[in-house]
Amino acid sequence: MTQLIDGGIVIIGGGQAGGWAAKTLRDEGYQGILSVISDEPHDFYERPPLSKAALKQEGTPLSRLFSEDETDSLNLTWYRPVRATHIDSNKKQVQLSDGRHLAFDKLLIATGGRPRFLSSAWQSHPRVFALRTWDDGQRLREALLSAKKMAIIGGGWIGLEVAASARQMGIDVTVFERQERLCQRSVPASVSNALAQRPPASGSRNHNRLWRNFAR
Question: What is the Cα–Cα distance from 50 to 144, expressed in whole angstroms?
Fold first, then answer.
């Protein structure tokens, strides 16, 4: 018989959005069951440092969104590391990857985006990395310690931050971007042009153009 657990308000996603949602609910006076489904073993943490200090500095701690005491005070029921595999909106249930089912009063989907690999072969390639989670960042940092050259697909802020970090580690970097300019979706052309014209970061051996445009 399937185990059905009362999840109260269920949040799918253990990232920053899920964390702030949980804190807001408690701050606004919700005292019922508050469940969080996460495919990572970590408490809520900030992701921006993954492309900066966490890549360059050994032993950089995970940047918690809330202190340990603050997280404990939220009185959360964690389901981790598991994934939500099916949502039955009629029965108001979420199925987990370990076979359990959560009944929910309200459901918040806060999973965020995921990297899109160019092919399944790329996804399994030992020298192809994505950067979304803390564990991703640790694997990438380990690879960069022995790298000499690096190609980055994506000329948005995350790609450029990784490029800057890698250059400071002495790695030659080329950024490939499908749009006409860097960070095209978030900044005006004047800012994109300034980014493209920046000189190579200190320590880089690559004095060629940082990025290349490629067609769709």
Answer: 14
